[in-house]
Amino acid sequence: MAASIVQRCLTAAVKVKCRTPSFTARRCLLSAAYTDPKLWEGMEKDPQNLALLANFMDRTFDKKLPVSSLTISRFVDNISSKEEVDQAEYYLYKFRHSPNCWYLRDWTVHSWVRQCMKYGVRDKALHTLQNKVQYGIFPDDFTFNLLIDSYIKDKDFKSACAVVEEVMLQEAFDLPSTQTLSFYAIGGYLATKPSLSMAEERALGAALLIVGLKQSNTLGLSAQLLGHTFIGKVEMQMGVNAVFRGMPLSWVRGYLGRALAVMEGVAAEDSGDAKLSKDALDRLSEVLQDLSSAPASDSSGEESGEEVEGEGEGKQEIAVDEEDEEERAKLPYYVGRFKELRSQLESQGRVEPSSFQALVTVAAARSLAAAEQADLEVYGGRVQAWEDEKKHLVIREKEMREKSELERQERLAARAAVQQAQGRAG
Predict the structure, then answer these.
(1) Which stretches within 131-175 are classed as H helix?
(2) Where in this protein does the record put region Disordered (predicted)?
């Protein structure tokens, strides 16, 4: 399956103006070296009996005492079946709601995701990720990449986008590899022409916008345009409060206006060779047309407000105020200004005929290999640091147990001495 995807990606790369013949020698998904668990599995093992560990944690939780991060780490590391993944999910939840909840180790989160992937239950990893407040699952960038890539290789772009949404919520788009994989997931999903709910449009728009801001090239600017377009549609239909609530987005109104600002920036003389993809411009055109042709009642919502889904809070009513109405009144201006700017971009040759998905494919083929190398170097150091920290915790645990045993023996000796003294006195 992976081979067919690579072939399709390379074919698409050739179609994009064929500007770089070397693309045919590249692949556009994470390599086997990147996803190889050999380095991770090469860490020193600490074999445990999960039944005994589970019994110990149950008794500790029942007494309302803290379970150590090392204990939950050992349980996750020793998973050997799907059924044990279910058990680990339960104990991750219990640990998150215990006094030691803040001490879930980064390597435990990484191990949890790897174990879910290893035993064919990625849905468990995604579930705990989407419910991170309840499970404490906040992966690092490398772990995010592994999960996104695994969904992409199975053509499950919707689930890949669900992971990208979590990356967006954590604002973890620092790695070029994560940016590329996120673009690839969203591009692949949009290529299927899905029917998007308002919540999905908001999430995809936020992800496109935030990751797009990391790049100032044609791909990044096209992503910014798409992101502002999706979010601007939500703002026009439901008000700006529905946009930024639960999202790392600005509450300032005018997302469609900022989409036009991206077009203005590209049309400027000092914008270099940057362009905007035709399908991104087409998407903005469709949104403007749909909003313009929608009945007033559809765009303004209920008189009392709108309902949207808030993170972990179910449906919430979002009020539409006068300033939202003022923003909606700008729609005719936005439509006219869009036509002017598009005409200007076309006359300047700044409209990229290649689709957004094709641009992503080319970017992946061009830069992913170099990005992988940098990631693997960092990951190697991270694994070593995790192993050192784990060894330190094991030593400290041993010392604390010895100290606890010594104190217990001293208490028993003192009690025996008191009883002996009492016996003599009697």
Answers:
(1) 132-135, 141-153, 157-169
(2) 291-326
What is the Cα–Cα distance from 382 to 45, expressed in whole angstroms? 17
CB half-sphere exposure, 327, CA atoms < 13 A: 25
Give the pLDDT mean for 286-297: 84
Buried b vs exposed e over 59-94: b needs ≥16 C-beta within 10 Å? Answer: ebbeeeeebbbbbbbbbbbbbeeeebbebbbebbeb
Cα separation, 139 vs 403, in Å, equals: 35
The verdict on residue 21 lying in a domain is: no
Q: Which pair of tokens denotes residue 158?
A: 């919707």
Q: Which H or E element spans position 314? A: strand 314-318
The H or E element that residue 307 is part of is strand 306-310
Q: How many domains does the chain have?
A: 1
Asked whether residue 5 is assigned to any structural domain, the reply reads no
Amino acid at 310: G
Residue 159 neighbours by CB distance under 10 Å: 19
Per-residue pLDDT of 135-173, as tens digits, reads: 999 999 999 999 999 999 999 999 999 999 999 999 999
Residue at 373 is within a domain: no
- Is position 217 within any domain? yes
Structure tokens that stand for 115 in this block: 């174990």
Q: What is the DSSP letter of 305?
A: B
Count of helix runs (H) and strand runs (E) in the chain: 21, 4
